[in-house]
Automatic annotation (TrEMBL):
Protein's organism: Aphanocapsa feldmannii 277cV
Protein name: GNAT family N-acetyltransferase
GO-annotated molecular function: transferase activity
Keywords assigned by UniProt, alphabetized: Transferase
Organismal lineage: Bacteria, Bacillati, Cyanobacteriota, Cyanophyceae, Oscillatoriophycideae
Pfam families: FemAB_like
Amino acid sequence: MADLSARWHQGIAEIDEQTWQALVAPHDLPYFNWTWLEAMEASGSITPRHGWQPLHLGIWRRSELVAVAPLYLKGHSYGEFVFDQPFAQLAGQLGLAYYPKLLGMSPLTPALGYRFFTAPTENALELTSLMLELVDDFCRRNSILSANFLYADPTWQELAETAGCATWLHHQSLWSRDGQTCFADYLAGFNANQRRNIRRERKAVAGAGVTVTALAGDTIPDGLMARMYHFYSGHCERWGVWGSKYLSDDFFARAERDLRRHLVLFSAHRGDPLDPIGMSLCLRSGSQLWGRYWGSDEDVDCLHFETCYYAPIEWALREGISSFDPGAGGSHKKRRGFVARPHASLHRWYQPGFEQLIRRWLPQANARMQAEIEAINAAVPFTSRPLPLNRRDPIDQILVS
């Protein structure tokens, strides 16, 4: 660990793109790419005024970046989709200030994969321990009550737990290919009643004269992301103060310019796909797809299911995608074949009484979450084929504290 120095960076632009990408790119998580996070910051979507102060921790060996942690100082809990408001309430009852808090995640992106990104030539456990010590020191010196790392990569989770982080269990929805090669295979996995329901829902969209076309990467024409922003903005505004409109139009423009190879748009249209009545936006890597945003100018029956679930699954099957995370929320996902999978957030607290109370509560909370996951999956209308949750792939290897 000789010749190491630590720097806190108050913006990702303080770190060269190639330097950042050398650590992040091997993990194939586009929402941690320099261009994605820089677009968040530079577009004004993530700013101190909005309660997100970038504070990325870099570990340098002389002039070489050997580890980096995407971090933010948060003034609220919005845009995280891990609901820690009970912790904030407890802090208030104890006379403690819950905010600001230190947060590790890709902003506004409830997708698995957070970690401290380290060079493959370095000892990941030693660097994780060192960086957590630096986080502890920063929080204590600045009277910050907690450090929180959301949607943890299961392999990194083990390192963080070894270094003393507490684990809080949650669940996400996930579709997995599981040997399927076409949409007929996808349908075959359901019981007869749900197969009829899915066919009926797709028929309702077609009966309204609407077709959904996928436009991916270089096939996305200039200007179409501005249309996507229109749909995103309109959808958020429908929910009023609960609409969670975080992203600016400039973010969508930057994504079209710099992130096009990771974008997939599902255009709902009558005639020309470039003249949509609705659209969903997904993010892709080589083997994974993530659903992010959607909106529509018309209330077409079942259009949400078609643009956000069925068309992306059909496209994923054609493209060799192995898994599809449709995004946070929505109890209706289980009826479309999305299985509940556990994921963990990791936490450190810096007031002994507060920490003791939460650590005492966590085992019961995690057991309840595991029971909820099992109940959700028992209600998935599959035939008797085993649920993907029973497989021992990395996403299932969550340790419950």
